[in-house]
């Protein structure tokens, strides 16, 4: 009798768009369960393993942060193309989060404050130059949550979502089971 082949690991990609990496830190906060996780999944394009380009299709894409520039839109679109299931992880991915606070202010005013007339401009940017190098991603008129750019399949609330929630969600996605979100998961006051 031939030995039973181990089930294929699910392939997971992760990225941080307009986020602070706090959601990735929360993923790492699953602590010793990381050893269990690497038995269940193989990480592909991700800051976790520093793989920078997709060379294979992925089962699950975890996206932190929304889109504040054209590079974010490009990366998110690539994730949609290469990941069967796409998860918005954290408030920045779900609704723009802190970066979206600028959405109430016209872009010109934001740039004026940051580069031309703000309190620190004289010290930090004495030439009063608004950066426009072609290598710098172009800022968007506002910050877009991920679901306004591509279809997202699941949303994990929190800033950041707790390590337990990320762990439960990953196990549910990998095993194909439903994830029952408890009320306390999305009640923040
Ligand atoms: Fe950081 Fe919170 Fe945004 Fe996650 S949701 S990227 S922790 S600000």
Describe the global form. Answer: elongated
Main beta-sheet annotation: 5 strands, parallel
Order of helices and strands: EHHEEEHEHHHEEH
From the helix content, strand content and strand pairing, which structural class follows? alpha/beta
Global Rg: 19 Å
Question: Termini distance?
Answer: 58 Å
What binds here, in terms of ligands, is: iron/sulfur cluster
Unreliable parts: none
Average of the residue pLDDT scores: 93
Sheet with most strands: strand arrangement:
2-1-3-5-7
Helical content (DSSP H or I, runs of 4+): 25-40%
Give a summary of the structure in a few sentences:
This protein has 7 helices and 7 strands; from the N terminus they run βααβββαβαααββα. It is of the alpha/beta class and 189 residues long. The strands form 2 sheets. Strands 2-1-3-5-7 form a 5-stranded parallel sheet, with helices on both faces.
Give me some keywords for this one.
189 residues; alpha/beta; binds iron/sulfur cluster; 7 helices; five-stranded parallel sheet
Q: Would you write up a description of this structure?
A:
With 189 residues, the chain is α/β, with parallel strands linked by helices. Helices cover 32% and strands 19% of the residues. It is built from seven helices and seven strands, in the order βααβββαβαααββα. It is elongated and about 70 Å long. It starts with 9 loop residues before the first strand and ends in a 14-residue tail after the last helix. The site of iron/sulfur cluster has 13 residues, from helix 1 and helix 4.
């Amino acid at each position: 009798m031939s030995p039973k082949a181990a089930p294929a690991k699910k392939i997971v990609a992760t990225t941080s768009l307009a986020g602070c990496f706090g959601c990735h830190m929360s993923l790492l906060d699953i602590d010793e369960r990381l050893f269990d996780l690497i038995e269940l999944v193989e990480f592909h394009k991700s800051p976790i393993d520093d793989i920078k380009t997709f060379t294979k299709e992925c089962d699950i894409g975890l996206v932190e942060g929304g889109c504040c520039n054209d590079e974010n839109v490009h990366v998110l679109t690539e994730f949609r193309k290469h990941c069967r299931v796409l998860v918005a992880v954290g408030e920045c991915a779900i609704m723009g989060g802190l970066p979206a606070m600028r959405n109430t202010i016209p872009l010109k005013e934001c740039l004026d404050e940051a580069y031309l007339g703000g309190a620190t401009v004289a010290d930090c940017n004495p030439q009063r130059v608004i950066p426009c190098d072609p290598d710098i991603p172009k800022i968007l008129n506002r910050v877009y949550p991920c679901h306004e750019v591509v279809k997202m399949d699941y949303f994990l609330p929190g800033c950041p979502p707790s390590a337990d929630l990320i762990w439960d969600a990953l196990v549910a996605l990998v095993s194909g089971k439903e994830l029952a979100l408890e009320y306390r998961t999305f009640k923040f006051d």
